[in-house]
Amino acid sequence: MRKRKVNYPPPKTATRRAPPAGSEESPERPNLARINLTAGAGRAGFAVGDRVRIEASGMYSGETAVIERLSQGVIPSALVRTSSGGTRQVRTIDLVPADAEAKPAEARPQPED
After folding, report:
1. What is the distance of C-alpha 59 from the center of its chain?
2. Would 25 disulfide with which of 19, 31, 33, 40, CB 3.0-4.6 Å?
3. Mean pLDDT of the chain
4. CATH number assigned to the domain with residue range 40-100, chosen from the 4 options 1.10.287.950, 2.30.30.30, 2.60.40.10, 3.40.720.10
5. What is the pLDDT, as a whole number, of residue 39?
6. Domain spans of the chain?
7. What is the 3-state secondary structure (H, E, C) of the chain?
8. What is the pLDDT of residue 105?
9. Contact 49/66 with Cβ under 8 angstroms?
10. How many Å apart are CA 1 and CA 67, to the nearest integer?
């Protein structure tokens, strides 16, 4: 009787064709999140009770809120409560003081001619 030849599966390091762009295995992923490296510095000058506007994308974007708690860490953040009643943890780099907003056009004094 003859011995059968042993077949081994191809090695994992075998050369493969490059995956198509946009797929999960592709090195170019347009849906990949981008990391803001300056977020670690944070933004100074905030205190509990300050009114701020959220400039981050996502939930409650553009809404005004009140800071309830500040967290100092690798990336400084704040727990804020929006005017609609929702809460969110936001990086301080994504907050802007609410009083820094421009006033509506009707409230601005008009120049005299």
Report:
1. 10
2. 19
3. 79
4. 2.30.30.30
5. 80
6. 40-100
7. CCCCCCCCCCCCCCCCCCCCCCCCCCCCCCCCCCCCHHHHCCCCCCCCCCEEEECCCCCCCCCEEEEEEEECCCCCEEEEEECCCCEEEEEHHHEEEHHHCCCCCCCCCCCCC
8. 46
9. yes
10. 82
Q: What is the edge-to-edge ordering of all strands in the sheet holding 51-54? A: 87-91, 77-82, 64-71, 51-54, 95-97
pTM comes to: 0.57
Contacts of 6-13 with CB under 8 Å at 24 or more apart are none
Q: Which pLDDT tens digit goes with each residue over 75-108?
A: 899 999 998 889 999 999 989 998 755 455 444 5
